[in-house]
Amino acid sequence: QVQLVQSAGGLVQAGGSLRLSCAASGRTFSNYSIGWFRQAPGKEHKGVACISGNTGSSDGNTYYADSLKGRFTISRDGAKNTVYLQMNSLKPEDTAVYYCAAVDSTCKSDWVAYEYWGQGTQVTVSS
User: What number of H helices and E strands is found in the chain?
Assistant: First the structure.
């Protein structure tokens, strides 16, 4: 019903920027909240950001991990069925595989709540 395809990641120097995209297919995309998660080697998925779907009074609301607020920005282009994650002032500790995920609900902080997942993309930040 919903398929998520992510852009490629890359290797970035500390202090640099990178923009990830998550393109969705399916007519229900606009009703889903889209979250970004990241997974470092040997670690579980951790929430990065989320943007709510175009339903209810919270449509378009955004949420960020406290440690990332001010550096990362999530946005969506409904006409293009695409969600973006703009990452600025990158640090080595941002190195991880980044995933986008969709849930037919309000934004959730726990990765297990999300039904659909992108393929993941490696982001490496060098010092």
Answer: 0, 11
Q: What is the mean pLDDT of the chain?
A: 90
| Burial of residue 41, with CB atoms counted within 10 A of its CB: 0-12 exposed, 13-18 middle, 19 or more buried | exposed
- Residue 43, pLDDT > 90, answer yes
Q: How far apart are CA 107 and CA 73, in angstroms?
A: 15
Amino acid at 125: V
Question: Could you count the other beta carbons within 10 Å of the beta carbon of residue 8?
Answer: 9
- Distance from C-alpha of 67 to C-alpha of 65, rounded to nearest angstrom: 5
- CA 4/CA 2 separation, integer angstroms: 7
